[in-house]
Amino acid sequence: MKKHTNNESGFSLIEVLTVIPIATMLVVILISALFSQYANSLAESARTTLRTNGQTILINLQDELLFTIAYGEGLEGRLDDPNEPALGWTYDTDPDTLIINEIALDSTRRDEDRHIVRQFINNCETSSITANPLAINNVIYFVEDVAGSDYDRLVKRTITPEYNYCSIDISTGSPCTPVTTTCKTNAKVTTCPEALVGSDNCESKDSVLSENVLDFDVRYFAENNIETPYPSNADKLELTLVLGDKTFGRHVEAEVKHTIRKIN
Length: 264
Prior knowledge:
The protein is α+β, with helices and mostly antiparallel strands. It has one domain. Helices cover 20% and strands 30% of the residues. It is built from two helices and 13 strands, in the order ααβββββββββββββ. The strands form three sheets. Strands 1, 2, 4, 5, 10, 11, 12 and 13 form an eight-stranded antiparallel sheet that branches. A three-stranded antiparallel sheet has the order 3-6-7, with no helix packed on it. A two-stranded parallel sheet has the order 8-9. The longest helix is centred in the N-terminal third of the chain and has 48 residues, at 13-60.
């Protein structure tokens, strides 16, 4: 008979106590790396969304920027805004305010049958077309503080004249004053804060373009690309919009730029 020795294999208590902390540490490191990668993916996705939204906002300004007759330092002299800031409208705020002077039209700029609207000073039907000055709208882009938020909102306000108009009769194509349903008038209306719609001659609320604004910067350029501090001297501008958001506990931001030269 041969004598067999029963040597049982396995981990000793010391080995187990040594391996468990090492394994735990490896699991923690792995989970941390996975969470970090996931957070990075979410941040990049949020940054892409912000960049896309910013580009869309600036591109949508293009028509107004192209066809403005001038960029303004303040509200056009014949216009009035009962809901303007305490110190009035001015371009040199922080962040910047963009004031656009545009010719009032009786339809959208894309409409082939659009006509220019003029201020009614002389008889519309019998006076020469130049006897009455152009009616001017102001389109204003400004940044508004949002209480309790890390981000501000970009708002668009339209200010239209309250004086009487000369326009075009849609049935005859002749100049007329907009006192009948056939006489076309200013296609745009004055806007104001939502809470004030229906008062102060305000028919529609301001447009909120974004509530994730960190900065809005406008640079003005005159002829030969020389930067000018005066918007009224400029024929080109550069817009910079910085948007931000929080995702997975992280702050992310994206900056977009748009440069455009007016054509008239």
